[in-house]
Amino acid sequence: MTVADMKLADLTMAELMSTRPAVVPVLLRHGLACPGCAMAPFMTVREAAEAYGLELDAFLADLAAADGRPCHSIEVHSTETR
Amino acid sequence: MPPPPDPAVLRGMPLFAGLDAGALADAVALARPRLHPRGTAVFTQGEPAAAGHALIDGRVKIVQTGPDGQQVVMRFIGPGEMFGTLAIFTDGLYPADAVAVADCVELSWPAATMTELMDRHPAIARNALSIIGGRLRELQNRLREVATERVERRIAHALLRLVRQAGRRVEAGVEIDFPLSRQDVAEMTGTTLHTVSRTLSAWESQGIVESGRQQVVIRKPHALVVIAEDLPPVPGRG
Fold it and tell me: CATH no. for residue B168?
């Protein structure tokens, strides 16, 4: 797992979806109910993978490939969570 | 009475979104600030709706009592939200009680002042319409839940709504960050205290939630979503 992967894994699902909307179809394809979910601001990508029984590395690779950008170019914006 | 508030308190409030500094100053200059200690009423069901309200700090419970004495929690109001304002534009009577469930700081505008502000700054009226639209949609969802869903799903949905409004990440999971009793949950979901207690106890024994007398922590957020949304269980997991 690369440093960029670790950063991606520790984003909350809400941060992931707001900074990279292209991942939303990937999430739906994997059967995740995160888009629109009240828990999305509180759960990380890592926790979501675990909850859905997905293998983390493969899941991260799918997410990183979603909008054609390599992992290391991910910009992390902190979104406001209450 | 607390000192007149800084116009900055209105920033970030959906009711005043998009207003310039001059308009915010105008709104705040006409506001009446008040403190409401925990447990006291901000207004009472059936009394003439003298004002529109906005909560600066604390938490207010909006609870309506039916002719048979049965109470229903309509919603909880958090910091930055408007409340009690709709009655100005309907029959002029507050449709429910507003009770401070934590120490509260509130601003209110007399009915005539509120309509005058809306005339001077139409953005306030548009914002109010969008807030009311959002709440109507939420009530439609609740009506559908009450009409069609098992009580367990309704309780899960009620907790998720509260998480959306007042969730806070804590070590053990996601906490609903204000005092919430089992009776409140019963009154939000149209069921009995007994049913809520039975459901929460079952969830506690499965490690999904942890609830003290007044505090609720969701220890397994995903498990609660599975119940609320009727998701298929993850293979190999409970």
Answer: 1.10.10.10
